[in-house]
Amino acid sequence: MSCPVEEFRPPTTGRAAGSGTVRSASGRQTHPGPPYVAAERVAALHTAISADSERAILVAHSAGGLTVAIWASQHVGPVRAALLVTPPYLDPDWIPDPHEAGDVLAGHVPREPLPFRSILVASRNDPSATLEQFEAYARDWGSELFDAGAVGHLDSKTGFGAWPEGLDLLRSLATEARREA
Question: pTM to 2 decimals?
Answer without folding.
Answer: 0.80
